[in-house]
Every structure is written in structure tokens, then in C-alpha cells.
Amino acid sequence: MSTVTRAPSGGLEDPAVDPALLLADPAGAPDDVPRARRSPRDWIVDVVSFVATVAFAVGTLGEMTSRPVPPPDPLLLAELVVGLGSCVALWWRRRWPVAVAVGVTTVGALLDAGGAAILVALFTVAVHRRWPTVVAVTAVNAAAFAAYVAVRTVDGMPEPVFVSLGLALLAAVVSWGMFVRARRQLLASLRERAVRAEAEQRLRVEQARHLERSRIAREMHDVLAHRLSLLSMHAGALEFRPDAPAAEVARAAGVVRASARQALVDLRGVIGVLRDGADGEAPERPQPTLGDLPALVEELRQAGLRVQAEYRVADLGSVPAGTGRTAYRVVQEALTNVRRHAPGTVATVAVTGGPAQGLTVEVRNPAPAGGTPPALPSGGTGLIGVLERVSLAGGRLEHGWTPTGDFRVRVELPWSPATA
After folding, report:
1. CA distance 365 to 355
2. Alpha-carbon distance 181 to 186, whole Å?
3. 196 to each of 20, 190, 193, 206, 359, how far by Cα in Å?
4. In this predicted model, what pLDDT tens digit does every residue of 290-339 receive, in sequence order?
5. In angstroms, rounded to a whole number, what is the distance separating the alpha carbons of residues 78 and 89?
6. Residues 216, 386 contacting (CB under 8 angstroms)
7. Whole-angstrom Cα distance, residue 50 to residue 213?
8. What angle separates helix 131-151 from helix 159-240, to the nearest 10 degrees?
9. What pTM, to 2 d.p., does this model score?
10. H-helix or E-strand spanning residue 396
11. Contact in structure between 324 and 289 (CB atoms under 8 Å)
């Protein structure tokens, strides 16, 4: 499928980057930086955690009251108040994870109903805080668990088994939380690298566009200098020879008019283009036109590139200089890409057109032997320069893979730009 590229109306738009992304991800935030407002995902997680811990607390109280010898009423009341209070405190675990974890652990150290809330608070600390803080809070939990084992009796299993299961549960919660934190840090790092890579790519694109515009400006400078020199010479002749024969005056005026018109046509192609070259640069060689295209193709053949060229233009040299120069550069860049990315293939160049229908240039080549058509590279700047030239000439560029497996670059140019 071909990609159609038209003249850009402005510069590249910067992607919307939310400056609160890192704050929204608590894994990368310092300990004293508060979290951003809860996201929908945070609300879902908090509601699920609250409902699960409340269900655990209610289930624990139901199990205690159904025992043959239920605990005394003061203990049941303490279980109810502390268990539900610990569940409610979890709503502030994102803002003050350490304070909530230490508080629910200290208050509910000797009770059962708040056990699930204690584990959730410990998990939050492991996710949101650095490892020294996690180790300290884990030590507080371990000490509270040791106090529970020393004071409360454990029914239904040997005490060593209960202690082993409790410590294993603490280790599993802390390990899971630290894994989640590490994963979030990795995602934040990859996101930052992606943003930086996009910024660098935009910079490379802008540099390529400026360099290409500078080259175009230098090319047009030579053409305009020639036109303006002719104009100045014939205008000077009219000034100093007012008594010249009428035929000579008419001929000089015609040259002045033709040179001025052609200078305007050439100048239209570089409106808004700034020349960044340093003063004192050596003048470049005369720029090529479409009449030089056969020589370019022959030169590439001698260099080893297999090219089939077809010219359906009555006279390549009759194409206007600006249009021919753009077409020449398009073919040059396309064949250079064929030599670089698809060596050994046969490239086909077709140039068709005329003054009525304009000029069409098409370069195509099959995929490299033994492979499938590769994806278009995103970091290349050759096609960016081609697009800049074609856009300034008022043309249209298409590039991409065709259904038959060929890569095609097609450019449609006006035969001669209209005078501005």
C-alpha cells in the first residue's frame, strides 16, 4: 500500500506529554512527594481492597462468635472496632503508606480481624517506598507477629507451622510489592526513553529539512544570479544607449522582460527558505537538470546498479530547469536507496509527461532476494529531503510498497510553476 505525502502546512506537532506522568506513577516518586489524584484504575483497586479486607474482618468475627466457647464481649468489640477501623484507614494508604502500615500493625498486632488490612498496607509500602523503608516496616510487622504468637494461642495447627506460614506470607507480600515497584520503574524508564527518542527524531528531521532547504537555496542562488545579471546588463544598455535603433531597444526590453519573469518563477520556489551557509563559501558547480539524467543512470550502472530507464518525454532538455532539477534529485535519491537497501535487484526508472499534463517520475524496485518487503524505516531523512523539494515545487509525492511487492517512489510535478 502506497503512502501519500502532501506538502506540509507547518512544522511537526509535538506529541502531548503529560508532565504528571511520573507523579502519577508512585514507583518513581521520592518518599516525601504526595501522589497525584486517583486514576480510575486506582479507584477500582482501592474499592476491591476495601471490600476484601472488610469481608475478611466480618468473616473472622463470624468465625469467632460461632466457636463453642466464644471470646469475651470486650475482645469481640475490640476486634470489630480495630478490624473495621483498619479497613477504613486503607483509603489513605496511597498518601501516607508508612504511617498507615505502622498504625494498623501496631493497633491490630494482637487481634485477628485486621490481618488482611495489615498485609495490604505492607504491600503498599513495598510498592511505593524504597527498600530501606520497606525493611523497617517489615521488621515492625515481624515484631508484631512475634508478639501475637507469644500472647495468643493458636488452635488447629502446631505453633512452628503457624509461625512458618506467617513469615512466608510476609515475605511473599513484600516480594510481590517490590516486584511491582521494579516493574513500574522499568516502564517509567522505557517511557522516558521513548519520549527522548521522539524528541531526538524531531530534531533530526528539522535538521534534515534545514539542510535540504539550504542546498535548494544555494542552487537557486546561482540561477537567480545569472538571471539578474542579464537583466542588469540589458537595462544598463537601455540607459546608456537611448538613441539605439528601435529594434535593438525592443530586443533588449524583451530580454529584460523574459529574464525578470524567469527570475520570479525561480524565486517562487525558494520563498521562505533561508540560506545558512557561511560567508565566503566557494561557489558550487552548475546544478543538474533532467537532461543530465541519462548520464546519472549510466554512472550508476557502471557502479554496479542494475537500472532500466524509460524516457517518455520528447526532449529531456526541454523540461524547465527548476522542474528538471527536482526530478533529477528525486531519481538520484531513489536509486541511492535502492543501492543501499535492495542490492542486486533491478530498478526501473520511468519519466513521462509534457507541458499539458506535467512531469511524472516513478522509480520502483522489488524486495531484496530471499526476503519479504521490510517495514519502512522511521529514522531516515532521505525521503524528507525529497518531500521538501517536491513540496516547494508544488508537486505530490507517493512512496510505499505496492500489492505486487515492489517499493515505489512516484512524484508528480507541474511542468512549469506559475509566476507568483
Report:
1. 28
2. 9
3. 16, 10, 5, 15, 41
4. 888 998 888 878 767 889 999 998 888 888 888 888 898 888 888 888 87
5. 16
6. no
7. 62
8. 160
9. 0.46
10. strand 396-401
11. yes
